[in-house]
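Hi Y.,

Following your request, here is the sequence exactly as I used it, all 418 residues.
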Amino acid sequence: MILHFGLGAFHRAHQAVHTQEAGDGWAICSVAPRSPDVVRALRAQNHRYTLLVREGEDVSATEISSVRRTLHAPTETEQVIQHVADPAVRVITLTITEKAYADAGPGSPIGLLAAGLARRTAAGAGPVAVVSCDNLLSNGPRLREAVLRVSGSVPEEVSFPATVVDRMVPATTPEDLATAAKLTGREDLAAVVAEPYSQWVLQDDFPGGRPAWERVGAQFVADVEPYERVKLRVLNGVHSTLAYTGALTGHEYVSGALDDPVLARLAERLIREDVLPVLTAPPGVDLPEYGAQVLARMRNRALRHRCAQIAMDGSLKVPIRLLGTVRDRLAAGGMPRWACLAVAAWLRHVTVSTDDAGRPVEVDDPRADDLRRLAHSPRRLIAAVAPDLADHAEVVARISADLADFAAYGVRECLERA
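Below is the corresponding structure, written out as tokens. Let me know if you'd prefer a different format.
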């Protein structure tokens, strides 16, 4: 049995699909940390839902049935803790977003996990792997640290393997639900949409056993760090860059932003000139080919991946997705021109929050108010997310100049000039 925290679309389009396709009888109990809506929808349809895979004009529908039970953490807290402690549960996975790792309250996923692991140890329930599937550097060790902060100790029989996950899963729209109903002949309020591509790289440390995910393309490696760095800096870094510059230039979707030749050139040059020169290729990965594949995937217009969705929580994502590239380019003696421009676009997005035409853009960031109070000082803005870079005069000057130019001429004109 697998217990999963986070009942969002990504889990239902990624881990649940891999588990079903592995075909060895493992079932999932999924926990919704907040909203009960998906729990209600899945329970009403016997926990079966549709995966729509879209590429261009092509769409296919597959029924997913690996999720056998759902729990709503705020109203079924004791059942969640019991499941963590259940000896039948041998794998616990999480997709709870970056910001949830800092929340250790009793009802939070980290708090519930820590309480359940303590009960599990006291009962001698056996070994378990606790697997973060979130876009965090060293997500396994980060998860272990989060649990340790709450519980004070972690039993030896509990492992925290690091992982890398990748699949583009936009928010499901009413049109997607209508397509699922048309293809399956039944209403499905829990349907999810994804691209054909799916990647899962895992450190093989599962003391209680695991599904044979390698049968369906998962890679088990000794060290996930090279894969993690490539994915976070190429795919996620470019995704964030297009989300901020796209929103600021009036584009609703990432694919539409890439249809704009000016933004497409920015994405290409960011990859080629800033990101790839400071990356080490994992075994079997051709970095230029990977970069080209990333852009091709983002151009899939069928996904309708909203810039606003990718732009969320930038104060948590930008340090992971872009600032590592900035630091490594500086250390190599280069000036990360395009990565700095992307950081400036994020700062304008979160502090000014209007596009080139003066229309408001959607901002959902836990530090938005704090950053707006610092908007008069680019150096203080940079210091708020990267104190070391705030002491680098060239970086501060470059980002300050971009912000001033954005204000004077608009983002798109500045990109054209650059």
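The longest helix spans residues 225-248.

Thanks again,
Q.
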